[in-house]
Amino acid sequence: MDFNQLSGLVLVVVGAVFFVTAVQLYTFWASEAVLVSAKKRLDEKIETLKRSFPSFSLRRRKAA
Questions:
Q1: Which of 12, 16, 31, 38 lies 20 to 30 Å (CA to CA) from residue 48?
Q2: What b/e string do you get for 17-26 counting C-beta neighbours within 10 Å, with b at 16 or more?
Q3: For the chain, give me the number of helices (H) and strands (E)?
Q4: Cα dist. 58→11, 31, 61 in Å?
Q5: Residue 11, CB half-sphere, CA atoms under 13 Å: how many?
Q6: DSSP letter (8 states) at residue 54
């Protein structure tokens, strides 16, 4: 195995590492975006549900 083959192999390995890292970062970014979107929709549904029910006070009233 001469130097040219070895340097080519090193370039292929380094390229593969960069590619895998880029894919992992993109996957992480996409999953974060999905989670933020899902949380936003859930918060909106909870707010709608809260508005649809009358507000009940959980505090006890003082005795007269």
A1: 31
A2: eeeeeeeeee
A3: 1, 0
A4: 67, 38, 9
A5: 6
A6: P
User: Is pTM beyond 0.70 here?
Assistant: no
* Residue-wise pLDDT tens digits, 7-33: 989 999 999 999 999 999 999 999 999
Question: Looking at this protein, which amino acid is placed at residue 40?
Answer: K
Instruction: Report, in angstroms and rounded to the nearest whole number, the Rg of the chain calculated over CA atoms.
Output: 28
**In the 3-class helix/strand/coil scheme, how is 19-42 assigned residue by residue?**
HHHHHHHHHHHHHHHHHHHHHHHH
What one-letter code names the amino acid at 46? I
Give the type of residue at 56. Answer: F
Q: How far apart are CA 28 and CA 38, in angstroms?
A: 15
